[in-house]
């Protein structure tokens, strides 16, 4: 048995042109709480005292390529969730996935994420 060495997953950091706007979009999409709204970082969490969170930080350059890391979400209803996210401002994304059981979307700054099918 390997010890975890006291390591805890704190957050995912997302580079953003407008951290507050992108953070607010994700907070609304996930129903999460805003826990930090500073100029240099915007953080959301499932609840104020629950980890992991997502931190949005400012960067000067725009996103250019497919993300090397993306989030997957498993909803109760894939079709309903895709429509809800599209209505919030997500867009469909083609990363070369072809026909799959998941749907690839992108947030307002182009970061891809997947909405998986029901189990």
UniProtKB/TrEMBL annotation:
UniProt xrefs under Pfam families: Glyoxalase_6
CDD domains assigned: VOC
Residue ranges of coiled coil: none
InterPro entries with a match to the protein in the record: Glyas_Bleomycin-R_OHBP_Dase (IPR029068), Glyoxalase_6 (IPR041581), VOC_core (IPR037523)
Domain of life the protein comes from: Bacteria
Domain VOC span(s) in chain numbering: 8-118
Name the record gives this protein: VOC domain-containing protein
Organism: Kitasatospora atroaurantiaca
Lineage: Bacteria, Bacillati, Actinomycetota, Actinomycetes, Kitasatosporales
């Amino acid at each position: 048995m390997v010890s975890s060495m006291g390591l805890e997953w704190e957050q995912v950091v997302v580079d953003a042109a407008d951290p507050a706007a992108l953070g607010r979009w994700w907070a609304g999409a996930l129903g999460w709480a805003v826990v930090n709204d500073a100029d240099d970082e915007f953080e959301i969490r499932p609840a104020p005292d629950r980890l992991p969170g997502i931190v949005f930080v400012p960067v000067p350059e725009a996103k250019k390529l497919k993300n090397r890391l993306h989030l997957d979400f498993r909803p109760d209803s894939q079709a309903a969730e895709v429509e809800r996210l599209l209505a919030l401002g997500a867009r469909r994304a083609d990363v070369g996935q072809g026909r799959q059981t998941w749907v690839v979307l992108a947030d307002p700054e182009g970061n891809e994420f997947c909405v998986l099918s029901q189990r």
